[in-house]
Amino acid sequence: MLEIKISDQKAQCEIEFITSVEGSEDEVILKEMNFKDVFFVQETRKLYIKVENHDPDTLRESAAKAVRYIKKLPFESARVHLCGGRKGIEAILMGLYCGDYVFETYKTQKEESPLREVFIECGCETLGVVLEECRVVASNIFLVRDLVNTIPNEATPSYLAQIAKDKAQELGIECSVLDQKKMQEEKMESLLAVARASVHEPKLIHLSYKPKTSKARLVFVGKGLTYDSGGLSLKPADYMVTMKADKAGGCAVMGIIFAIAQLGLPLEVHGIIGAVENMIGGNAYKPDDVLISREGKSIEVRNTDAEGRLVLADCLSYAQDLKPDYLIDLATLTGACVVGLGEFTYGIMGHNTELKNHFEQNALQSGELVAQLPFNSHLRKLIDSKIADVCNVSSSRYGGAITAGMFLAEFVREENRDKWLHLDIAGPAYVEKEWDINPYGASGIGVRGCVEFAKSLVEEK
Ligand code: BES
Ligand code: ZN
Ligand code: ZN
Known about the structure:
Blueprint: E1 3-6, E2 13-18, H1 27-32, E3 38-41, E4 46-50, H2 56-70, E5 77-80, H3 85-99, E6 117-120, H4 127-149, H5 157-171, E7 174-178, H6 180-185, H7 189-195, E8 203-209, E9 217-228, H8 237-240, H9 248-263, E10 268-278, E11 290-292, E12 298-300, H10 308-320, E13 326-331, H11 335-341, E14 345-349, H12 353-365, E15 369-372, H13 377-381, E16 390-391, H14 400-409, E17 420-424, E18 430-431, E19 441-442, H15 447-460
Parallel strand pairs: 1-6, 2-4, 2-5, 5-6, 9-10, 9-13, 12-16, 13-17, 14-15
Antiparallel strand pairs: 3-4, 7-8, 8-10, 11-12, 14-17, 18-19
Bound molecules: ligand BES and zinc ion (ZN) (2 copies).
C-alpha cells in the first residue's frame, strides 16, 4: 500500500489539480502545450491534472488518475496539493490509495513502480484522523479485491473461512465457522442443496465485533459463491467467465466488519457469509427439486443458476436470530440488475423507504453509485409456485433484479421488515475496463458505502 504522510518534506515530484491554467506556476508552458487534461512539466517536475470543479467525485477520480500516471515515472516520492475542503481531501486520499492498487499474484513479471511515499499537508488538525480513516477503509477494499480476484481453485469456502479466522484473530474479534454437519443441524437445506455437487465443503462464516459500548446492532449478510457455474442449469461458456467474482458480496462483508472494527465504531456488527460453490455432478440439486429452507418455507427450484437467493435465504434466517437493528445483505445476485442500472451502479431494495433513502445518501457520499429499485405486489406474484411456497425464479423475463429481491424478502421475518436492505452489487463488483478508482478486476464495492452508513448511525444517535 502507498504510504501517505503528513509532512513538509521535499518530494521528487508534485501533483496539482487545477481548474484552469491561469495563475498556475507553469502557466506559460501549459498554454504552449495546449494543456487539456493531464501534463507533466519536466522543468518543475509537476504533474497537472485538469478538474472541472472541486466536487469530491471529480477529485477522487482525478487522484486515482494522477497516481496511475505518476507510478510510470521514475520518482520515489510525490507531493500532492490538497484542495476541496474536508470532503474533497477525503476523496483525494481515497483516490490515491485505491488508484494505486494492482493485482499481480499470477504474473511472473511484476510491474514495479519506484513510487513509495506521498506527502500531504493542509494546516488543519483533523488531517491525521481523516488520513487514518481513509487508510483503514482502503486497506480493507484491497483485502476484498485480493480475495475476489483470487482464482476459484484457490479461493474455496474453506480458504475464505481461514482468511476470516486469521484476520479476526489479528484484530481481536470473534469468528466462528459452521461446517456442513453444523449446517445440517441448523436445517439449512436450501444452502446445502446448492453446495452439494461441489468437492469443496460449504462454510458459513460468522464474524462479530462487539465493542464495550454499542449504539446499534448491525448484521451484514454476504453471498459468497466461490464459483457459480450455474449448476445443472449450466451457464453458457461466455457467461461463466468472471464467476469467481460471485463471492464479492461475502468478501465485501468481511471488509466491512474488519473496517468497522479497526475504526473502533461503537456499533455491534456481525457478518454472515455463505461460502458455497455451485457445480454440476451426479448428486447436484436439480430444477424440479423442492427444498425446505431454514425458515421452514418450501422452495421450488426451477433454475439452479438462481442459487444466490437460495444461499441467502438460509443466511438471512441465521442472521435474524441475532436480533439485528439493521439487516443488510450484499450479493452479486442478478444479471438483470446490471441490465437495468448499468455496470457502475448497484441496486438498493427493501420495504423501508426512509432506510433506503438514508443508505442511498451515505453510499453516494462515499463515492459509490447506487439506485433504488421498487418492489410491488404484481412482481411478487411472479415468484408464486404451484407446488411450493415460493419459486426460485420469476415466471417473467422482466424485472429480474426486483423479483430476486422479493424472493429474499420472503425470508425476512415480519418484525425485521423495516430493518432490512438488499444490495444487488452484480454490476460494479467486477470491472472489465478500468473506471473511476477501480482497476481491472474486483472493485471492492460495498465497503465504502456500508462503512459510511455505519458511521452515520454513530453520528446521529
Ligand atoms: N451470479 C449470477 C448473477 C450475475 C450475473 C452476477 C452477471 C454478476 C454478473 C446469479 O447467480 C445468476 O446466475 N442469476 C441468474 C438468475 C436467473 C437464472 C433467474 C441471472 O441473472 O441470469
Ligand atoms: Zn447463478
Ligand atoms: Zn450467482
